[in-house]
Amino acid sequence: MAVEMIMPKVDMDQETGTVVQWLKTNGELVTKGENILVIETEKISIDVEAPETGILDGISVSPGDVVPIGTVIAYILEEGEDLSSVLPPNEKPESKTEAPKTKQKTEVPITPIARRMAEAQNLDFREISPSQPGGKITKEDVEAALGQKKVVGERKDLTATPAARRVARLQNIDLSQVPGSGPGGRIQRSDVEIFTPTVRMDSDQTVRSDQRIPFIGMRRTIAERLTASYQAIPHVQFMTRIDMAAFDKFRKDLNTQALANGDQKISVTALLVKLVAQALTKNPLLNSELVNEEILLHSNINIGVAVALENGLIVPVVKNADQKDITEISTEVEDLVSRARSENLTGADVRGGTFTISNLGPFGIEHFNAIINPPEAAILAVGAKTQEVIVQEDGAITAKPIIRITLSIDHRIIDGAVAAHFISDLKTALEMPSL
Amino acid sequence: MRVISYLEAVREAMTQEMEHDSRVFLIGEDVGQYGGAFQVSYGMLEHFGPERILDTPITELGLTGAATGAALIGMRPIAEIMFMDFTTLASEQLVNQAAKLRFMFGGQSTVPMVLRTPAGSGTGAAEHHSQSFENWFVNVPGLKVVMPTTPYDVKGLLVASIRDDNPVVFIEHKLLYKTKGEVPKELYEIPLGKADIKREGKDLTIIATGIMVQKSLAAAEELIEEGIDIEVVDPRTLRPLDTETIISSVKKTGKVLIVHEAVKTGGFGGELAGVIVESEAFGYLEAPIIRLAGKEVPIPYNRDLERASVPQVEDIISKAKDLATLKV
Amino acid sequence: MKLAKTDAERYLLQMHQIRAFEEQAEKSYMAGKIHGTMHLSIGQEASAVGSISTLEPTDYIIGHHRGHGLTIAKGADLNLMMAEFYGKANGYCRGRGGSMHIADVKGGNLGANGVVGGGLPLAVGIGLGLKMQAENRVLLAFFGDGAASAGAFHESMILAVLYQIPTVFICENNQYAMSFSAEKWTTSKRIAAHAELYGMPGRSTNGNDLLEVKEEVQKAVDLAKGGGGPSLIVNDTYRWRGHSKSDRNRYRTNEEIEEWKKRDPILRFEKYCLENELMTEIEADEIKTRAYADIEASRQFAESSPDPKVETLEEGVYA
After folding, report:
1. What is the distance between the alpha carbons of residues A291 and A284, in angstroms, rounded to a whole number?
2. Is the complex ipTM higher than 0.90?
3. Do residues B194 and B246 lie in contact, with contact meaning Cβ atoms separated by under 8 Å?
4. Range(s) of the domain holding residue B239
5. What is the percent of chain A where pLDDT is above 90?
C-alpha cells in the first residue's frame, strides 16, 4: 500500500515549505525515519524523514519549489507497486470559454459644460451617472455628483463643542451663524441655546429653511475668471448712443432677400458681429492680447457672443468674423447659440475669442458695464433699444430708436483716444451699415 | 458611628472575614511576627496562629504563586506585596498564571485570591518604594483592580474582594492609612464595579482615584467659595469600571477633569477619557477632557521635587477653575 | 519490587498510549491539522508513568509544557485530550488552552504551563492548600532541567521546605533546556544536589527505568503523606525529538540521539515484563495494538468535533 509523503508543517504560522534538496531519488529504497529531504521555512531548514519504509517514487517537487503544507510531494511504494496505480486520475482540462468581448468605451458621453465642471472638480466622468441612461452626462448630473461630495457652507475655522453641535443639530440651527463665546471663539452649548436665528417667520409660524446652491462648477469658474479679470485689468468704459434706424432697415432688407433665397434669417446679433468685425479690422489694438512683455495683435478676428444660460453664461466664438459673409455668420451664430443653450458646445467652440459682444438688449437693460473676458483687451456691452427724443443738430426734435453701447477696455493696452476711435468707427458702421 | 483609621479598617476586614471563612489566610513578607511593614496585620498572628498568618522570606514571585496555587484548589488566600513597586517581581504569577488559569483551562478552575499592596508617593521613599501601577493590571483580562479611598470603602471592598471568585489586585495608598472615617462595626460588603459620587455638583466632574479623591474634595471645598460647584466621582473599582455613573455625571456637567497620581502617559486617565468619548456623554462635552496626573519622572527623593511630581490640591484647584470657566 | 500483572499491563499500555499519542500529534501537526507548536515527550514515557503510578486518583499533579505524557498517565480521556489539541470546542479547555495549557482539573491534573517554571510557585500554593485541608493528599510537581535555573524554582524550594508541604518535586532532566545543556550550568553536575542545599531529600534516578522511578517517587510520596515534607526526585531521561517543532537539533549530535534511543524505556519495561513472566509476547503486542487503536479513535473523535464559536470568545475570563 503506497504511502503519501506530504510537505510537512514544522513551524508555527508556516504555510509553505521550500524544497532545498532530495537526499534520495525516485526508485531508491528508503527506511522509515531516514532523512530523505531537506526543506526550508522562513525560520529554519530542516530534514524530513521518510514516513514509511519502501521505494521512493513519484517525486513531484524540485529544489527551489515553494510548496503549500499538506501537498503530496512523493510516494513510498511497496515492492512491486506501480506508480501509475497511485497517482490521481488526470483531470480534464476545463474548456476555456472566450471571455465575451466588451466594447471598451474610450469616450464617456458628456456635454462640454459638464466636462468642464467635472474637470474643474477633478471628478472622474465614469463616476457620474447620466440622468438619461445611455445619454450624455449633463451639468445637472455633475452637480448632483458633486453635491454628494462636498458639504457647502461649513466654515473652515468653525470650532464648536460636541454639546453645542448636538443642540444645534436638534434645533436645526446653522452653527456657522452662531457667535462663539468660548476660547478662540469656540461655540459653546449656551451660545447655541441663546441664539435667535434671523429667519422671517410666516404669519402662520411655519419655519422656512434656506436653500443652498453648491458654489461649484461653472458658477465657480465664472466667478474666478471674472474676479481675476476685474482685479487685474484697469477697466475704462466708453459709452455712446447709436441710432438704430438705418441698422433696422438694413437688416430688414437683408432678411427679405434671405427669405427669398431660403437662407438663414439674419439676427441682430449676427449683424452686430459682422459690423463689429468690420470696425475691428481698422482698430487692431481692440483685437489684441497682452502676453508677458508683448501686446499681441491678433490676425484673426474671432468674436465671442455671450449667451445667457440658466445658471451661468457661456461665450461661443465666431471665428474669422471679418472674412465670413453675413449668411455664414448668421448660420453660425444661430447654431452656436442653440448649441450653447442645449449644452452641446465643444471646447473648440469657446476657445480662441479675441473680442466679445454681450447683448442684454433683449432683457431690457439700457446700459451696463461688462467685465472684459480674459485674455481679450475689450468687450462691447449692447443695451436695449428704446425710442428716445433726440435733439438734432438743427434743433429739431425727433424720436429715434436708440441703443446704448458701452465699450470696456483694458487701459494697459488701449488709451481713451484709441477707444474713441474704435467707437467712432463702430458707430459709423452701425448707423450706416454696409457689407 | 465609631471612627477608625483606613489601616484599622483593612485589618478589621481581614480579621472579620477570616473568622467568618476558614479558607481565608494571609501570606506575605513580615506580615506575621512583625505585624506588617505598615502594621496593617498587627496582632493577627497572635489571633490566628502561624497556620493562617504566613511569613515568607523575600520571595515575591514564590508567594504570589503560592497564593495562586492555594486558590486553585479551593483556599481563599490574601497575598500582601509590601510595596506596589515589587509587584514587578510578582507579575509573572499574577499576570501569566492567576489572571489566565480560568480562561486557558476553559473554565475548569477559579482563582479566588486577593493581592493587597500599598502604593503611592509622599513618604520620601523615592524611586523604588513610591510607584503606582494600577493601569498595568487594568490592562489584563482576568484580573480585577480595586482602589479604595476611605476607611468605610476599604473595609467593605476588601471583604467583597476576598469573597470574589476572581484574582483581585487591591491597592491601598500609603498616605491613606492614617486617614480616619466612620466605619460600621459589623462585617459588610461593598460591591465591586460600583463607583461612588463623593460629592455632588453641577459645574464640573472630577474623576479621581486613590488619594486624589481626598485632594479633589479639598479642592472642591475651596472652589465652592468662588461659586464653582464640583462633582467628585470615585470609581473605587478600576476594572470592571462603573461606566454608567461616570457617563451620567459627564452628561450633567459637560466638563471633566481626571486626576490620578500615576504617570500621565499610558495612565488610567487615558482609559477614562476613551470611555467617555466613546459613550453618549460625548455629545454633552463642553470642553476638552483634561487629565491631571503624575509627571513623566520616577519619584525623586528631595521633598519639594517629590511633591511636584504628582498633582496637589492647588494644581487641582487651578485646572478645575480653568475648566469650569472655560479657559480651555 | 513485585508488580501485579494488572499493574504491569496498565503501565505498558499507558507508555504505548503516550508514544502513540505523541506520534499522532506530530503527524497531525505536520499535516497542518494542529497549529501552533508542540513539545513532544517521546523517550520520557517511564518518567511520567513511573512517577504517577504512585498516586491515588484524589492526588494531584501539576506539569509543564512537555506534559502530554503526564496528562495521559494521570488518566485523561484521550478523546477530550486530542480534541483540545485540535482546538475544538469540546476539548478539555474548550479549545482555549491547546497543547501547552492542557488541564484536567477534575482528574487532579492542574495543568501544563507555558512559562518555564511557572508551575513551581503554584505547586507551593497547592501543597500549602493540601496541607491546610488535611485530607492526606499529595502533589507531584513536574518540571524540567530548564526550570531548575529559574528564580521561581529557588523561591519554590525555599517556601516548600519552610512550610513543609506535601509535595514531591520531580525534575524530568532530559539534559537540555531548549538548547542549553544542564551539564553546563549545574556546577555539581547533579540537579538533585540542590535539594540538599535547600533542606529536602534529593535523589537522581535512571529516568528510563520505570520501576526505579516508581520506587524512588513512592518513597517521597510516603514521606510527604506522612507529614515529612517535600522531596526532589530527578529523573534522568532524554527527549528523542527537538524542544519544539522548530528545533533544528543543532545543539546535539545524531550519535547522542541514537545512543539514548537504545535506552528506550518502553522496550526496557517490556523486556522486564517478559523476563519476569508478567505477560506473553502476544499479550504485549496486543497492548501495543490497543494503545495505537485508542489514539486512532481519539484522532477521529477530534477531527469530527466542532470548532468553538467566535461569539463565545469572551466567556470564561471571570468567575
Report:
1. 15
2. no
3. no
4. 196-324
5. 50
